[in-house]
Amino acid sequence: MAPPPAFEDATYMLYVLGEPGPEVSTDEFNNWYDNEHAPQRATVPGILSARRYKLSNSDPPAPGWLAVYELTSPYVLKSKGYMELWKKQSQYERDLLNKCPNLNRREYKLYQRRSREDYPQRAKDPVEIKKKRVLQTIALEPGAHSDMTDDDFDAWYHDEHLDDMHRVPGWLRSTRWVLQDVKGPNMKEFSKSEMPPKFLAIHEYEDDSFRDTKEFKEANNTPARLSIVPKLGKNAERGYWKLWKEF
After folding, report:
1. Which InterPro entries match (predicted)?
2. Which of 6, 34, 91, 233 is deepest in the core (most CB within 10 A)?
């Protein structure tokens, strides 16, 4: 059994959205991911945690599955251990990946982390408890033609929004990330118009009930937030995820 993940050591993240194509069943996709692909990567030095999540809902519609690997540094993805996995890739895996056109592989650098005081202990909770939790992912950036700069956006998030989220009942942790690279199936380059937002926030909650709380509704309706929303890029992404499996 792998040792408990060292969350506080993670400074980089591999974030992979995907789902099976019409030629691959969900069962086959999950069997490959759960029993071959993810377990192999979880053994690579520098990969601190490996988890898969299933989509609950999103806006706009997104691939139904998310894999998150927390890393000690970006160099893990260029390390001998990691590259060997691709060199030894089975023909079955190559064929399956070619049948999954919706894979989206992103690399992020950690920008900010805020956790509840008991989070290190809660990170060791049994999987059955973790499966009740909700991961909220929000990818945003200033619109190309707005007068809001990256610094303006960051100031609002840092000075107001994270404090507001911290007060939401059931909140466990928030991390903020900056996009470093994104690739499509077979490491296809993305065009400028296809690029996801530059900034990603991930908020973790104990269960679904946070969305009905007064604090959550207030956090999303402050004057500052309402003034910022019209200035955001149209490529914003919002999703809610439940843990499927950790490795």
Report:
1. Dimeric_a/b-barrel
2. 233
